[in-house]
């Protein structure tokens, strides 16, 4: 072996180990959303595959039935979930309604208004019968952003806008 070749080999091996085995995993960790990973892990480890929960976190963040996390950008009332198959329930988040933020819940014709204090609120709905910002609850993450007209949207802003519940066009 010529002089310098083992040194070049060791340098290349060292660069490979540092870049591929150390820096790439650290870089991917930097781009990880820890809240999303926590709920994904919790769902995989502790929840039954047949139960799907959506979460409203404060008034600005939510997790869909299929585990997708995002922040709300709307300042209007928005439909979180509704049973479009049997009209058994409707859940609307009222933002800045004059009386503070509230949840409007209608179940089988009985309506209540809840004024939570920025807590984590879990919701459990019927499999495959609901739609809204909480998603479709059908165990298919690919169709989570379905619009009221059954089309799909890639833009978060447009998705949230489509589920706004406007009061006389003021939104």
TrEMBL record:
Domain annotation VWFD: ranges: 57-117
InterPro entries in the cross-refs: VWF_type-D
Domain of life of the organism encoding this protein: Eukaryota
A Pfam family reported for this protein in Swiss-Prot or TrEMBL: VWD
Name the record gives this protein: VWFD domain-containing protein
Taxonomic classification: Eukaryota, Metazoa, Chordata, Craniata, Vertebrata
């Amino acid at each position: 072996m010529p002089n310098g070749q083992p040194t070049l080999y060791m340098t290349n091996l060292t660069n490979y180990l540092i870049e591929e085995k150390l820096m790439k995993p650290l870089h991917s960790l930097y781009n990880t959303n820890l809240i999303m990973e926590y709920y994904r892990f919790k769902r995989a480890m502790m929840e039954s595959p047949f139960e799907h929960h959506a979460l409203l976190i404060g008034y600005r963040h939510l997790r869909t039935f299929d585990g997708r996390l995002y922040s709300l950008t709307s300042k209007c009332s928005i439909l979180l979930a509704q049973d479009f198959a049997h009209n058994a329930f409707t859940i609307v988040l009222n933002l800045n309604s004059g009386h503070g933020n509230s949840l409007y819940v209608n179940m089988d014709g009985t309506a209540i208004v809840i004024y939570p204090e920025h807590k984590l609120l879990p919701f459990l709905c019927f499999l495959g019968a609901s739609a809204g910002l909480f998603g479709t609850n059908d165990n298919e993450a690919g169709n989570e952003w379905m619009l009221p007209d059954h089309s799909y949207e890639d833009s978060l802003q447009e998705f949230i806008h489509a589920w706004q519940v406007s009061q006389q066009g003021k939104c």
